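Example record used in the benchmark description.
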Amino acid sequence: MKSFSVSDPKSYINLLFTDERYDSFYLYEVRFKTEVDVYISGKRNMAYDESVTDEQKEDPAYTYVTWGSIKKKVLLMMRGERLPLSMKLVLMFSRENINRLVEMKNLPVRADEISGLFLNVTLEGEQLVLTSGTSLSVFTMDKTVEQLWDETLERYYME
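Model output (structure tokens):
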């Protein structure tokens, strides 16, 4: 786990809502405080979309909505004259990207043993902190997955 301070919170938050590089992430959850406190779970409500097939209902990759599909709605709720008083956004690397990462880097764990790779974006007042997170379904002392995720975030998702 690694934390990064962002010197220009407004620009980075704008980037989250406009740059396509985050679109394939799943939305795990978002909380923010403006005039009201808002909490959004990224878990897909299968009953809402009548076109969801039985196969999709069983597919773990279909459990969460993608950031790209929901970010405009979140922005509409959050939009105001200034940044929210606080915000916590948790994005989860997509299952397809986890599979690709394991395959490319020959990791010591299987892709199905990685429960999630997370990017936590936390805004408190004027301070914005990005924190990496990993979740494995197996115990290992090996930190290769964690280190690789930190490097990936630093290389592609930090500005």
